[in-house]
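Lecture 7 notes: from sequence to structure.

We start with a single chain of 124 residues. Read the sequence below before looking at the structure.
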Amino acid sequence: QVQMVESGGGLVQEGGSLRLSCLVSGLTLRDYAMGWFRQAPGKEREGVACISWSGASTYYPDSVKGRFTASRDNDKATLYLQMNSLKPEDTANYYCAAGYFVRRWFDTHDYNYWGQGTLVTVSS
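Now the structure, written as tokens:
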């Protein structure tokens, strides 16, 4: 049974930093591309970071490029998202996701498994 558990969310001041973690069990992480997505109330879920199975390639939308960094440790079955220079518009629930065959990096339909989410709140 696959389980993905995010942690590290919380309340931070504008300009601050957070590091999110996603611990994965029930699958071989090395077989999957991974993604971080976020969803604010009333908004669509959007991708903020994707990372290839080996960690050699990463992808970010313009909204977070230069501020967010994804990484992974396949041996520890853990995905990370380092978030710097946080803005109030970054406030959302953040979800990790795993996809066995991802064709479009920020398409939620290409991901097979999802975590429960962790809340990030950035105050102005």
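Residues 55 and 72 are 6 Å apart (CA to CA). Keep this in mind for problem set 3.
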